[in-house]
Structure formats: C-alpha cells, structure tokens
Amino acid sequence: MKKAALPFTTISVVGLGLMGTSLIEACEDAGTVTAYGMGRNPVSIQKGIRDKVLADGAVLGQEDDHARKLLAGSDLIVLAMYPSGLLPFIETYRDSFSKGTIVIDICGLKGAFVDKAQALMPEGVEYIGTHPMAGRETSGYDAANSELFLGTSFLIAPTDKNTEENIDRIIRLAKAIGCARIRKVSPEEHDVIIAYTSHMPHVLASSLINCWNGTEDIASFTGGSFRDATRVAQINSRLWTQLFLDNKGPLMKELDDFQKELDTFKKALAEDDAEAMNAFLDRSCQRKTAWNERRDRYHE
Fold it and tell me: How many other CB atoms are found less than 10 A from the CB of residue 211?
C-alpha cells in the first residue's frame, strides 16, 4: 500500500509510551517532521533525544515553560496518555496552543470526553478524537515500533465542531503512517463497537488465564490457539481498568450477550445435543469467514 504524504511539519506528542513513540517514529519514516515529546517520565524523554527520535522534549511539572514553548510551535499535538490525564492536560496547557493547530487523542474511548475537550479549545484550535487500532502486548518507550500501524484500522470520531479540511488532514496522517482502513464514526458509536472488538477480547483473555486451577507447569500443553486467545492477557492493568470503567455501560451489555452465547453452548454440551452444537459452531465459522473476506478487500 502506497503511503500518503505527511500533512504536518511539527508535532508534539504527550506521552512517550508504546503508542506515542511509535507514532513519532512512523511519522519520521513517512517524511520530514520535527518531533517534540513530553510527559512526566524524564527517562523516556532523555532516551528519545539520545536516539534522535525527538528534536526536543520537556518534563511536565518540571519544565513547563519549555513545554509551553514546544506546544506553541507545533501544528499537531497528539495526546497519547491515559484517559484520566487528557482533560487536566488540556486545562493546564491550552493557552499555549497556537491558532491553526490540531489536537488529537489516540485513546481507546471517545464519548466520555470529546465534547468536553472541544469546549476547552482556544479559538482557532480544533480537537479531533482518533483511535489507531494498533498495539502490542508490551508497553513503554522501548517497545515502540515504526511499523506498528501498517495495515491497521484508524478510527476518526468527528463532531459538528470539526471541519472537513482538518478531518482530511487527519485522514492523510493515517495514510502516511500506513493505516489501511480509515473509518469515521460518532464518539458514541465508537465506544459501543469498541466494547465488543477491543475491550471484550482483553476481558476474555484475562478470564481464560485466570480460570485455570491446575498445575502451573502448563506451557508444554499450549499450542497456537491458546497463545492467540490469551495474547492480550499480558495487559497494562492501570490503563485497561480505566478504559473498562469509563465504558461500563456498553461493556456490560457485551458481557451479557457473551454469557448468553456461552450458555447456549453449555446447554448443548450438557444435553449431548450434537445438532445444536453443530449449528452454534457453523454460525460462528460462517460469520468469521465473512468478516475475513470483508477485511481482506481493504488490502486488494
């Protein structure tokens, strides 16, 4: 897939973990860009400058004057932090955002704060909620990878406060870092769907790991299916606890629906009902096949 040209020249990324650092590296692979980094961990900033990933950086709470200077000189500000930190950061530093700047988050939730964040923007600064559907089991600066976004989905959650011109710039950003599927969706619908496609797999993987009560010497008994099903159980518990609680309503509904499906299978098993079990498995196989075919069309 051919990448698009990068539509920004100077970016500030707040939060130099896996996602934030990978985004910087992907942008630098895509074109000439000046990247600044900031956060509360001085080690990540020092590493970024040492590795020439960052042109400059600032430790929030210690180098705030310098952070404000970097933010003022950026045409894109990316908030790559825990959900609980988004609005406090904006409230503290919004007076440093320059007219014409776009501010985005790359958080896994949207409905809880997009309207509030947009209301806090200074005149001439636009806030757009985004969600690159990428990640790894590991986290932190050292886990970053410039190819993290290749072939992935990129969700944009615009509102009536966003302009088509700036939405188009974010679409071009997504294409520049290698995303294959770009979708626009309302913040509310985003959270409903993400409860199923992102939050549920993490809950189920963790539950599958936690439900085993046998010997801990289990590695010799696992194959690819078990590794695939439990990969995301190696989880950042602080981050995902926030995401789960902030999206409680949609996630509770998905858990109820999953319990019904599990009960259907359990009933068929208890009653030796091969016909019902075949129907259950055939339905999932057909649906998964259809979804795979739809997904593959994006790569043609």
Answer: 7
